[in-house]
Amino acid sequence: MVLLNGNALTLEDVERVACADEPVHIAPEALERMTASRHVVEHLAAGEAPVYAVNTGVGLLAHTRIPPDNLEQLQHNIVRSHACGVGDPLPRETVRAMMLIRANVLAKGFSGIRPAVAERLCEFLNRGITPVVPSRGSVGASGDLAPLAHVALALIGEGPVIAGGVRRTASEVIAPLHLAAKEGVSLVNGTQAMLAAGALDLLAAERLADAADVACALSLDALRGTPRAFDPRIHAVRPHPGQQSTAARLVRLLEGSEIRASHATCLRVQDAYSLRCAPQVHGAVRDTLAKARQVFSIEMNSATDNPLVFGNETFSGGNFHGQYLALELDYLAIALTALAGISERRIERLVNPSLNEGLPAFLAANPGLESGLMMLQVTAAAMIAECRVLSTPASPGSVTTSGNKEDFVSMGMTAALKFRQLQDSVRTVIAIEMICAVRALHYLRPLKTSPLLEPVRAELEALAPPDGGDQPSTDAIQRIGDLIRRWKTPETG
C-alpha cells in the first residue's frame, strides 16, 4: 500500500500504483492538515474580502465578484468549462499516475479542500475507475488545466470513465462528488498531467539507458574493440558521475570475454568514437536522467495549487507553472536522441564491410544473394530522423492565453507527449543494434563474449535467430523492443 502524506511519494510508488494497481490511502496526519486549511477557506468564503477562485472568477475574470449563493456553482462551472481537451485519450497508466500525484499534492494541506476530495481520487484508483482524459489541450500555464478538468469532471459524475474494461458515465459507476468553495479550481490547477507522463516515461528511459549500455558492450565485442578506453583512470580526471558509472558498467559487462582475449595483442590503437566515447555520451544521458529524476521527485511532492492557504490567509502565486518540467522533458528528448544517434553509428559499423574487419557484408551468410541486415540500418536511420524532429524543444514556444493574463506558458504537456513518441523510436534503434550485434557475435563463434553478456546474447538470439537466411525483421524488432521495456541489466539481475 502507498500511503500519501504529501511529502514522500517516489517515482517507483507512482509506477506501482499506475501500472500494478497497488492500493493507496491518505495518511492520518495529511487528513488533519487538509481539515485545518479547509476551515480557513470556509471562513474566507463567508467573508467580504475577494479571494481568487473562491468568490471571484478565474483568469482575466478574476476581478468579477461571485455572489455567495453561487460559490459552489462556480466550482462546478470551472470544471465543466475547462474540460475541453481533444485528441486520443491518455493511457490508463498515465491517468492513474495523474490522480495519484494530484491526491498527494492535495494531501500536503495547502489547498483548502475537504479531505473527501483527495479520498475520492484514491477511491477511483483503488476501485480501478479511470477517467477518460483527452491527451491534448494543455499549455502548462496554470498547470494542465484541461486534462485535470477531465479527471474532475468524472469526480462530479459528468465525465466518461473506464471501469471493468467498459466505457461508462462516471455517475453510473460511483456517486458524484459535490464540490464546495475552491475545490473545483484546486482540482484543475497543477502540473500533474505532464508530470504523470514524464514520471512514467523517465522510468522507461532509465531502463532504455541500461539496455543501451548492454547493446554497446555487445557491439564493442562483436567489432573486436578494446575496453581500454573505459579504464577508470581516464574517467577519474573528468569525473562526471554518469561518465564514470557508464565506464565502470562497460568494464564489468565485458570482463572475461574470450573474444577480447583473442585479439588482446592486435595493433589497433583506438576505436571509433561510437565505441570509445560511449561513457562520455551515454554518461551525459545518464546525468540528464538523474537531473530529471530530481526535478520530478520534488514536483510530485510540491503544492502546485492556486491560491494556497498559509495560516489564516490565502496567497495567489504561480506554483502551477510547468517550466521546470517542460525544460527537463525537452532535455530528456535531446538526450535520448543522442543515445539513439550513437547507437545507429554502431549499427553502421556492424553491417558496413568498409568499417569492420572480418565480418560478412551486412552480416549476411551469403552476401549478394542475401541482403542480410542492410535494411535494418535504414530503419534505424529513419528513426533517427524522427528523433531529430521530436527533440525540437517545445518549452520556448509560449503562446499567450486567457486574455493575456497567462502571457507566458510552458508547453510542458507538448514536451511530454512528444517525449513519449520519441522513446518508441529510440527503443527501436537500440533493439536493432542488439540484433546486429548478436548476428555479428554469431560469426565469431566458437569464441564467446563475457560471462555476463553470454546469457543476454542467448536471450536475444532466441528472439531474433541469427541464421536462417533473409527473413522479415519487424516481429524480431518488436520482440526485443518489448524486452527493453522491462529491461533488467545482467549485472543486477
Q: What does this molecule look like?
A:
With 493 residues, the protein is mainly α. The protein folds into two domains: 2-190, Fumarase C, Chain B, domain 1, CATH 1.10.275; 198-485, Up-down Bundle (Fumarase C, Chain A, domain 2). 54% of the residues lie in helices and 6% in strands. It contains 18 helices and nine strands. The protein has helices spanning 11-20, 28-45, 71-82, 92-107, 115-126, 145-155, 183-188, 192-222, 232-236, 241-254, 258-262, 273-276, 278-299, 323-351, 374-390, 412-442, 453-463, 474-485; strands spanning 2-4, 24-26, 86-89, 130-131, 134-136, 160-163, 166-169, 308-310, 313-315. The strands form four sheets. It has a three-stranded antiparallel β-sheet. The chain has a two-stranded parallel ribbon with strand order 1-2. The protein has a two-stranded antiparallel sheet with strand order 3-5. The radius of gyration is 26 Å and the shape is elongated. It starts with a strand and ends in an 8-residue tail after the last helix.
Q: SSE order, as H and E?
A: EHEHHEHHEEHEEHHHHHHHEEHHHHH
Assigned CATH superfamily of the largest domain:
Fumarase/aspartase (Central domain)
Total helices: the number is 18
Q: Provide the β-strand percentage band.
A: 5-15%
Structural class: mainly alpha
The fold-level CATH name of the largest domain is Fumarase C, Chain A, domain 2
* CATH architectural label of the largest domain: Up-down Bundle
Estimate the mean pLDDT confidence.
94
- Lateral arrangement of strands in the main beta sheet: 4-6-7
User: Roughly how much helix do the residues carry, as a percent range?
Assistant: 40-55%
Task: Determine Rg (CA atoms, Å).
Answer: 26 Å
Number of domains: 2
Oligomerization state = single chain
β-strand number: 9
**What's the level 1 CATH class of the largest domain?**
Mainly Alpha
Largest sheet: 3 strands, antiparallel
Q: Uncertain regions: pLDDT < 50 for 5+ in a row? A: none
